[in-house]
Amino acid sequence: MQLNSLLKTNKKKIRVGRGIGSGKGKTSSRGHKGQKSRSGVAIKSFEGGQMPLYRRLPKRGFKSIGKNVTAVLNLSKIQNIIDKSKYHTDKILDLKVLKEKKLINKKFKKLKILGSGEIKKNIEISAHFFSKQALAKIEKAGGKINIVKK
Length: 150
Known about the structure:
Blueprint (H helix, E strand, L loop, with lengths): L2 H4 L46 H4 L13 E5 H9 L11 H6 L9 E5 L9 E4 L1 E2 L1 H9 L3 E4 L3
């Protein structure tokens, strides 16, 4: 048994504009003249004089164009990458290498290294920004630092 057969209603669709005897002839319940009497016209977001929804709701925030263009990596994450042998320590670790290995998203344009965690291997890192803790820990491990200026 289908759902349609259970929902049978005895209401007929009102056919407007079918003569004076139907009670919905001539202007077809649209009144006389004006924008709303014409076919193919819908007044977008007009709610009959009531304050429309788009004006009732508050405006919030804005979308910054240059948002999230800097990738942030902690030393613990870099050590994790080295341990999982996704990266060979003979090359310089920079933004390009991280993108090629798909370790960070390709949308990032700059790289920042933060000092959370420890680094055990001496490694050469090239980035746009370094925190003071990161600089100290990398140098302590015997690594090199290149600051990219762009």
